[in-house]
Amino acid sequence: MSVSILRRGLIATTAVLSLSLAAGAALAADKVKLRLSSPASENDERAIALTTIFAPAVSGFAEFTPHWNASLFKQGTELEAISRGNLEMSIASAQEMAEFFPEFGVFAAGYVHRDAAHQVAVFNSDFFKSYKKKVEDELGVKLLTVMYLGRRQVNLRTDKVIKTPADMAGVKLRMPGSEAWQFLGKALGANPVPMAFGEVYTALQTGAVDGQDNPLPTVQKSKFYEVTKQIVLTNHLVDLNYVTISKKVWDKLTPAQQATVQKAADAAAESGRQKQLKLEGELEAFMKEKGLKVYSPDLNAFRQAVQGAYLKSDLSKQWEKGALEKINAL
Ligand code: KDO
């Protein structure tokens, strides 16, 4: 074979390769960009579900690019970023929603949601439709589905036994940085310290805070058990996150694409929920193996203190009339 034939073959192969690369790039460029930013770590079940279930389900027309560990936007700034058109998706808390719409505070309050199924019933209820609509109309954000984070527990690096909220006096408890979260920390009897999720491990390690609150799967995945001594099973908040998407981006999708996105988000949420519930069931034993004390406090004392604090606060005055009763009735 002559050198020139070889060269021609090489040129032809290179041409085919660059053509298909260009076609691939063009295809990717044609796809709807769905960047999601979240403080969740990539080993979190919500992250795993979105990556392994949501992403492939929408890949025919959308490129889903998640940014975990708050690597694109700081915790609590994602909704504004979506609203301004700088981000397409997030996993938002009801507490973050309450920063824009105080009536969301009822969904962020302690001892309101009973369990994972109750969260789903509330999200799909008739009365929640007006909340969703307001967020779409006024913030440009669509709430796609509800994800289960789990039952938040008090997790301390100190060893003083906690039985009632009075025992929490003086405890520097890291809570996420918004009014609704800080209020919950106070209602638990602690001195809440606002701090982003990504700083919690080091703060526990160095003693900058005495503790934090999160569901057991988060305590495991983020290794907080390495730097704490006890878990007080307060169950003070059955925590949720909404999977959100820019309304502008949503409106540009065809009805078939919208249906695919909706189905994919629901499937990811359901898978994440089941995994998170299973983990919660297993992790008490795991924490004990790691040497932590795990015990129940006087739950009635906590429930009464927390519910009482909300009911006499200004926060609950901003809840929609009858909202709590409607939630409780579901
Ligand atoms: C946290 O900062 O403690 C928290 O658990 C609050 C949740 O609403 C959610 O933002 C969560 O962090 C992140 O997704 C990280 O797991």
Description of the molecule:
The chain has 330 residues and is α/β, with parallel strands linked by helices. It is 50% helix and 19% strand. The protein has 15 helices and nine strands. The protein has helices at 3-30, 45-58, 78-83, 94-100, 105-108, 116-124, 129-139, 179-187, 200-206, 216-221, 247-252, 255-289, 299-311, 314-317, 323-329; strands at 32-37, 62-67, 89-92, 141-156, 172-175, 191-194, 211-214, 230-246, 293-295. Strands 1, 2, 3, 4, 5, 6, 7, 8 and 9 form a nine-stranded mixed β-sheet that branches. Helix 2 packs antiparallel against helix 12. It is globular and about 60 Å long. The N and C termini lie far apart (79 Å). The model is unreliable at 19-26 (pLDDT under 50). Bound molecules: 3-deoxy-alpha-D-manno-oct-2-ulopyranosonic acid (KDO). 3-deoxy-alpha-D-manno-oct-2-ulopyranosonic acid binds next to loops.
Measure the end-to-end span.
Answer: 79 Å
> What is the count of helical runs?
15
Overall geometry comes to globular
Number of strands: 9
Beta content: 15-25%
Low-confidence blocks of residues? 19-26
Bound molecules: 3-deoxy-alpha-D-manno-oct-2-ulopyranosonic acid
Overall pLDDT confidence: 93
Q: Which class do the helix and strand fractions yield?
A: alpha/beta
Could you give a short account of the major beta sheet? 9 strands, mixed
Rg over CA atoms:
23 Å
* Secondary-structure element pattern, one letter each: HEHEHEHHHHEEHEHEHEHHEHHH
Provide the helix percentage.
40-55%
